[in-house]
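To whoever is covering the structure queue this week,

Two jobs came back overnight. Logging them here so there's a record in the thread.

Job A:
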Amino acid sequence: MPIFFNQKLSESQILCVWKIEEAVPFYTAYLGISENQIEDLSNSTHPQKQLEWLASRTCLKFACQEMDIEFLGVLKDEFSNPCLVNHHANISITHAEKFAAISIDLEKPVGLDTEKISSKLERVAKRFLSENEINVLDGTPEQIGVYWCAKESLYKWYGKKKMSLRDNIYIKPFINQTDKIVGVVDFEDITEELSLKVFYWEDYILTVTV
C-alpha cells in the first residue's frame, strides 16, 4: 500500500499521506464499495476527482486502523465537514492530483490542506492575502503556496464556513522552508492563535493544525 508517509504528530493526532498509484478496483475492494457507487459517494463525474476521493477515503481507513478506530464510513455535518460514522474523532481530508492526505485528532478540531506548487496562486493572491501579508511576500510560488494551504487548513479547522480567507485568517510572517508557522483566526465569536506544521515534498506543500 503506497502510504507516502504516516506520522504521529502527538498522542492524539496522526497525519497520513497517500500517493495515488492504484487503479479504481484496488480502492473499491479496500473500501468495500462497488464502482457503481463512486459517482454518488464522491459527488463527482470526473474520473480524476473520483480517484482522489477514493484515495482519500482509503487513506482515512488506513489511519483509523492505526488509531484503533473502527472505520464505518464518512458523513457530513451541518456545515458539510466530514466526520466519522459512530466515532467522536475529529478528521480533515485533502487531495491534490497525485496525493491524498488526512489527519485524525482524538481531542481537538483539526484542519489540513495540500497544494501542488504552481504560479497560478500568484495570480489570485490578492483574493486571499491581506495587505500586510502581501507586503512581506518574497513572491515565490512556494511561499504563496504555504499561505494558501495554511489559510485553507485554518478555514477547515474552524469548520463553520462563511469566513474570508483574506479578512478573517492571518498568517504571521515566516521564513522559507520553515516547518512550523502560526496563524490567527479572527471571526465573529472567536479570536484564536494556532500552530501549523508545514511539510514539503516533490512539488507539493501540506499544512496541518497541531
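Job B:
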Amino acid sequence: MGVVTRDVCTAAGQTDAQIIGRMHGDPALFDIIFDRYYPAIHGYASRRLGRDLADDVAAETFLVAFDHWRRYDTTQHSARPWLFGIASNLIARHQRTEARRYRALARAEQAGAADRDSIDGAADRIAVRLDAQALRGRLAAALEELAPADREVVLLVAWADLTCEDVARALEVPAGTVRSRLHRARRRVRAALGGADPTATGEDSE
C-alpha cells in the first residue's frame, strides 16, 4: 500500500501520457486518470442524458479506457480528448433519449416551465451561458434539430471545453471536418435563438 501511495504522489505532477506509460508496471495507476477526469465525463454525460444514464456512461467510459489503455498514443500528453471520444461513442447509443430530453425541455418552456424539476433539473444545465429564461426551451429545441454529428461537435467544444483539434482526436475525424460542423451548428443555433450563441467559446473566431 505504501508503494501505491508513493506512486500516486510521484504521478501527481506527470502528464496523463506519462502515467499511462507507467501502467505497464503498475496498472493500478489508472486510478489517477479516473480521479482526474471522472467528474468532467460524468458532468458532460449528465448534461446530455440526465443523471441516471450519466452514471452508466461515465462508469463504462472508464471501463472501456482501462480495457484499451495499451493502445493509447503516449505522444498525446492529455487523455481528455481520448476519454471524451469514448464517452461520445457511448452517448451516441442514447440519441433517442437525448432527443426526448430536449423536446421535453422545449415543451416545458412553452408551457411556462411550471415544473422544471420533473425533467431532472435539465433547464439549468442545458441553458449554459444563457441569462434569459425564455431562451432555454429554444436552445433545447435548436440542439434537438441539429444533425447528431454537428451536435456532437458543438457540445464537445461548448460543454467539454475541447478545442477543434481535441475534438478531431476524440471523434477520429479531420480537424477541417470538425470546424465545418461547428460552423454549421453555431449558425443554426444562432438562427434559432435570434442571434444569440450560448455555445460560443474562445474557440469561436467567427
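Note for Job B: Confidence is low (pLDDT under 50) at residues 1-6, 113-119, 121-135.

Please reply-all if you pick these up so we don't duplicate work.
Q.
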